[in-house]
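Private note to self, pasted from the team thread so I don't lose it. Backbone tokens:
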């Protein structure tokens, strides 16, 4: 009778390890475990033309606290990804220190990166809307939706929310 528990364990283990490259990435929250969604998506939230942040100028978030689309006339490619800027000055600012301006989690939704089945959403890489953003501790966080109540809640729990999202991002990038 000892063979049955071993077979059940092996069957369960193979289910737990079968997504990208025969591996499911699991995040643990308390005593619960959740699969991470879209872990095999690219590191940057890009479109089919490898354009990041839907063409929004990353420097504008920091210099003017606003989300504005850049132009293909002022583009720069960094780490294989295209970025658009409003003008050559903004492009130069980015080129001088690109890592400073890159959004956290590759531009994916910060809230959903650390979500633990909030509204049925699994944690992972989910699209964001560049118009919905926060800068916290000089880091850019993008979100998929915005409401004053939602942003207030996220800000009030920002440390915990960022820790959860960081943990998910690290697990997906095998940095743990």
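Design output:
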């Amino acid at each position: 009778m000892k063979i049955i528990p071993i077979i059940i364990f092996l069957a369960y283990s193979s289910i737990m390890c079968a997504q990208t490259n025969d591996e499911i990435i699991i995040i643990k929250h308390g005593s619960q475990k959740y699969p991470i969604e879209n872990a095999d998506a690219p590191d940057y939230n890009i479109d089919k033309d490898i354009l990041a942040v839907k063409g929004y100028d990353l420097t504008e978030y920091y210099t003017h606290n606003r989300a504005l689309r850049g132009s293909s006339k002022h583009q720069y490619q960094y780490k294989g990804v295209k970025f658009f800027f409003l003008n050559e000055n903004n492009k130069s600012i980015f080129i001088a220190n690109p890592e400073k301006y890159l959004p956290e989690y590759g531009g994916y939704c910060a809230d959903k990166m650390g979500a633990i089945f909030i509204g049925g959403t699994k944690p992972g890489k989910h699209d964001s809307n560049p118009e919905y953003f926060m800068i916290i501790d000089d880091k850019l966080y993008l979100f998929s939706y915005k409401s004053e109540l939602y942003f207030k809640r996220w800000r009030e729990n920002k440390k915990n929310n960022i820790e959860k999202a960081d943990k998910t991002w690290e697990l997906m990038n095998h940095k743990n």
